[in-house]
Amino acid sequence: MGTIIACIGSGNMGSALMRGIARVAGDTGIGFTDVDTEKAKTAAAGLGAKVYSSNIEAAENADYVFLAVKPQGLENVLGEIGPVVLRRLAAGTVPVLVSMAAGWSIDKIQSAISGDTKVPVVRIMPNTPSLVSKGVIALAASPEVPPEKNAELKTMLDGAGTVDIIAEHYFDAVIGLSGSGPAYVCMFIEALADGGVLAGLPRDKALLYAASTVLGSAAMVLETGKHPGELKDMVCSPGGTTIAAVAALEAGSFRSATIRAVEASWRRSLELSKPQGGSKG
Q1: pLDDT tens digits, one per residue of 150-194
Q2: What domains sit in the chain, N to C, each tagged with a CATH number?
Q3: Cα angle vertex 203, ends 198, 204, to 5°?
Q4: How far, in Å, CA of 218 to CA of 215, rounded?
Q5: Distance CA 86, CA 244 (A)
């Protein structure tokens, strides 16, 4: 068997990442563990994966251990698997821990396992479009992660979306933008569709046009390399319908409200990263 991956937690994000990995690494051995055994079995069945009997068994066998639990549950999980990880470190077979918990820095994870000994930890921040393989996944690795392991992990995660290697100190900003961003975009799509309904479109048609317009516009930004402002100007004819709509958005502080939303999420992430709030969800 090739690389072995254990996913502690079988919720939406953990399951989505495992599906993405399975798409690009067919011979990878994936296994789940969860406090809800039936939930783990369901996630595993969809991939032909296995179910571990415990977090300890998962940590004993895997090359990569994904920590896909809520931030408030991570301390207990690390307490369980820590002795196994340290024992495997001494034996030269230590797994790479991959965490997606907000508020848990690499240093905090390492300290929770051992105050002095550093184990290899990768911190990632995926967003919900990973559920449909269209996510963006920020990735930062501790110095203890071998370059080849980091490269292998990035390749595997490519199946869930775009992986971007970034310094860990940017993670709070990433959470404010791409981590929380799907909520802002979905609110915009809903509002666009409501506008279409107000103008007389049937609800299903309005939603189709709204979501497809956002999808296509995002693709234009990424594929043309042009600034969004330039692409916006391409639609705005003098005295036309679009510039009238843009003026209405500006009157409603559309861009300013969006910037404030990212800032609010960023500031909340900073709060959760502080020692007294790091384990809260």
Answers
A1: 999 999 999 999 999 999 999 999 999 999 999 999 999 999 999
A2: 4-167 (3.40.50.720), 179-272 (1.10.3730.10)
A3: 150
A4: 5
A5: 63
